[in-house]
Amino acid sequence: MKIMEPSVSLVGGNVFYTNRPKHVELCGRVCYKSEAKITEDSAEKFIAGIIKRGHEAVLEHARITLNLSNRKDTYRLIQQVCIRMQKGGLHDYLTFTQYDGVCIVSGNIRAWRDVCKFMYHTGTFFPDSIKRMWAENAPFFPEFFKDDDPYIPDTITDIDPAPGIPTFDDPVLRLRHSWYTLRFICDRGVTHEIVRHRPASYCQESTRYCNYSKADFGGEIAVIRPFYLHDGDLDYFAWKRGCEAAEKAYFDMLNADRTAQEARCVLPTSLKTELVMTATADEWLHFLKLRTAEAAHPQMREMATRAREILAEQDAEVFSDEQIRDAR
User: Which of 29, 112, 206, 221 counts the highest number of beta carbons within 10 A?
Assistant: First the structure.
């Protein structure tokens, strides 16, 4: 049994001009711990498989922003499409901001695909900005983008406004449309709390598919040491014995020809897991407000405090103490 320390790290976000296909593949492969299969040209094949199998939740880890300030008709059209989706009982997850002449709409890849599929099935006209979005992100829109389509414009420049141009100098726009992906390495008890934040997207190491008896995992389970337990103390040894007993029971079940997903029932809450979480800045503020509070679970607060430091390094203005305190 391996005893590990928890950690939080930044994986990506719009501020890094993230290569979307590679970013999505990296997040998706966390589920199966198959990152070793990543190559220079593996992302598009991975995404094609995701779309074919209908596992589009993985696509939520990359987002697209359109600055439609000079294309207000397109902005209004997309808004109207989303209203029609809602009236039909469908969800849309795009974010709209319009004020002082600025029109910004953003959303994750899955949300954009849902909107495009609705537009297609209802015979809605596709504006140039949407077509250009397909061209800029072709692996994610195989049903729509064709290389030989003569109607794809080559002069549209409103995809993902770069940080620093006037629209994103505004902290309100960064708050609503900037996004970040963090990787948490922690125990499964902590992740049960993290995933309760629903306006976010997740990929997590799966105990259904990860068989810890295999060589890829060193033939052992890994557990996270709670920071309040110290080697040499009675409570530390009680915790360690409990984890070792769980590991033995897990391998006994595997040796009795139970599958990994069946044997996982005896794994401890302290089992190490990896989870990537993608959310917009305003949802991260909500997360930090709740999870850094004194009432939060100690290990959850430990992770959230580290996340707070990382995000504040990226945008000190948006992730200030005042903004966290006043978050919804």
Answer: 112
Residue 254 burial (C-beta neighbours within 10 Å; 0-12, 13-18, 19+)? middle
Encoded tokens for 273? 């897991």
Q: What is the pLDDT of residues 270-290, one digit of tens each?
A: 999 999 999 999 999 999 999
Q: Are 242 and 268 in contact (CB under 8 A)?
A: yes
Backbone dihedral region of 124: left (phi > 0), alpha (psi from -120 to 50 degrees) or beta? beta
Instruction: Give pLDDT tens digits for 73-103.
Output: 999 999 999 999 999 999 889 999 998 888 9
| Pairing mode, strands 272-280 and 201-204 | antiparallel
Residue 132 to residue 23: CA distance in whole angstroms: 21
**CB-count burial class (<10 Å; 0-12, 13-18, 19+) for 13:** buried
Q: How many CB atoms lie within 10 A of CB 98?
A: 15
Q: Where are the beta strands (DSSP E) in the chain?
A: 2-4, 7-13, 63-67, 95-99, 102-108, 179-187, 201-204, 222-224, 272-280
Ramachandran region, residue 88 (left: φ > 0; alpha: ψ -120 to 50; beta: rest):
alpha
Task: Write out the two tokens for 154.
Answer: 């080559």
- Is-contact 92 115, C-beta < 8 A? yes
Parallel, antiparallel, or unpaired: how do β-strands 2-4 and 222-224 relate?
A: parallel
